Structure to design on (93 residues):
């Protein structure tokens, strides 16, 4: 089954699916700054574009480009900034 997700007034959209490894979403982030919360561990892969990321309990933004990923623990929040449309794959584990 495929689920559709829309956040931040349509500026972040994704399609969700599930495999034997767990749930995942693949989506697009429009330019802007967004804060997300996690219910479980998330592994976020940037497929195309670039994100500036502020991870939990850190003060410095990091740059994550196509081909790279970052991990966010469960029950945390993180922020991202996108200057161009950016494609991502998020794995929930």
């Amino acid at each position: 089954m495929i689920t559709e997700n829309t956040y931040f007034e349509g500026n972040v959209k994704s399609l969700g699916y599930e495999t034997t490894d767990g749930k995942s979403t693949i989506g697009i982030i429009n330019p802007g700054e967004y804060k997300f919360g996690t219910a479980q561990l998330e592994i976020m892969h940037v497929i195309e574009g670039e994100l500036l990321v502020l991870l939990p309990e850190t003060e410095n933004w990091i740059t994550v480009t196509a081909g790279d990923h970052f991990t966010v623990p469960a029950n945390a929040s993180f922020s991202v900034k996108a200057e161009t449309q950016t494609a991502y794959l998020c794995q929930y584990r």
About this structure: The chain has a mean pLDDT of 97. The radius of gyration is 12 Å. The beta strands are 3-7, 12-19, 22-29, 32-37, 42-48, 50-54, 62-65, 69-72, 77-82, 86-92. The CA atoms of residues 17 and 74 lie 19 Å apart.
